[in-house]
Design goal:
The chain contains 15 helices and twelve strands. The chain has about 350 residues and is α/β, with parallel strands linked by helices. It has three domains: about 1-130, Rossmann fold, CATH 3.40.50; about 135-150 and about 225-350, HAD superfamily/HAD-like (Rossmann fold), CATH 3.40.50.1000; about 155-220, DNA polymerase, domain 1, CATH 1.10.150.240. Helix 14 (about 305-315) links the parallel strand 10 and strand 11 (about 320-325). It starts with a strand and ends with a helix.
Length: about 350
């Protein structure tokens, strides 16, 4: 069931999209902040026959974004709200109103002006045909790394490790740390200290260093997402992709850093570093994410930004794409595709 606003249908090319949706057997209705002449306007343009019902604010006495206007539309549709999709072109009235009424919604963004908005977007009604199709078999789920993919956090991780290791005489650079992204904190502490000091790092010492680093990270990290990633997460969810997060960070870091940003609810499954016995490049974290989703690895696509994560995804039998958020493309060459940023990734993954 498709529940749509009136305004998009006054923009060409409405007829081909509406015809194609009707051929799919998709019932349609209109809900619009419009005057009493909407039905006559649609008849004049030869569009009224596409719609099973009209709900017009001038006739029902309430207007978007008031969620009450959606109640008569839901009643007219004769379907539960979970079966309805609302299509609109105004973020406040349409997205805000539909969400307040408990409906799924997609925003028509014809001029690509709302790339920062936390909602699914399409560019035209013709694009809606692709939007409502089920995800391809090899990307029914999209599993994302956290640092450098969801959070713009790698510089803060670097500063935290530098503060932690400086008392040991270690001068750490991005070139030393960034290729290790995805490895749990304790093994990272052991590897770095042993590499620079040439002596064994005990488990107790690694734990102490890891706890120090985590405390510094909370101080250093200022809430920031990788540009464009939150709208992409909404885009993927809206199109039926299931989302999971697989990170080498401990659960306490997610609680302190990611949870307050309000995006954890977008992920159906979250796998943290302390939930697995072996961190990346071992595939365990990605295998566990797929198992919790109830999917086989071949149905999952991983988004990474570091070599160890790419190796883990490939070892798990999953497709993997990478973004150059912290490392150049030549260091990410094992991925199936490498993209400079989220915008380029979005253009690929949604088509």
């Amino acid at each position: 069931m498709l529940l749509a606003t009136g305004n998009p249908y006054l923009h060409a090319p409405a007829d081909p999209a509406l015809e194609a949706l009707r051929e799919l057997g998709m019932p349609m209705g209109i809900l619009s902040n419009f005057g009493t002449g909407l039905e006559e306007l649609l008849r004049d343009r030869g569009l009224r026959g596409y719609f099973d019902f009209l709900v017009v604010s001038a006739l029902v006495g309430v207007a978007k974004p008031d969620p009450a206007i959606f109640d008569p539309a839901v009643a007219a549709a004769g379907q539960p709200r979970s079966r309805l999709l609302y299509v609109g072109d105004h973020f406040g009235d349409d997205v805000g109103g539909a969400r307040a009424a408990g409906l799924d919604v997609v925003l028509i963004d014809r001029a690509d002006r709302h790339g920062d908005k936390p909602c699914p977007r399409i560019h035209s009604l013709l694009d809606l045909l692709r939007y409502i199709r089920p995800p391809a078999a090899d990307r029914r789920a999209v599993i994302l790394d956290m640092d450098g993919v969801v959070l713009d956090s790698m510089p803060a991780h670097l500063r935290s490790w530098q503060r932690t290791l400086a008392p040991l005489g270690i001068r750490l650079t991005a070139a030393d740390l960034y290729p290790l992204e995805g490895m749990p904190t304790e093994p990272t502490a052991q590897l770095l200290t042993e590499r620079f000091l040439g002596q064994v790092c005990s488990d107790d010492e690694a734990h102490r260093l890891a706890e120090t680093k985590r405390a510094f990270f909370v101080e250093e990290f200022k809430p920031a997402f990788v540009p464009g990633i939150v709208p992409l997460l909404h885009d993927l969810r809206g199109r039926g992709h299931r989302l999971a997060l697989a990170t080498g960070s401990a659960a306490v870091v997610l609680d302190q850093v990611l949870a307050p940003l309000g995006v954890l609810e977008l992920f159906e499954v979250v796998v943290t570093g302390n939930q697995v016995s072996r961190g990346k490049p071992n595939p365990e974290s990605y295998q566990l994410a797929a198992a919790r989703l109830g999917l086989v690895p071949g149905e999952c696509l991983v988004v990474e930004n570091a070599p160890l994560g790419i190796q883990a995804a490939k070892a798990a039998g999953m497709g993997c794409v990478a973004m150059e958020t912290s490392l150049p493309a030549e260091q990410l060459a094992e991925a199936n595709q490498v993209f400079p940023d989220v915008k380029a990734l979005r253009g690929w993954i949604l088509t």
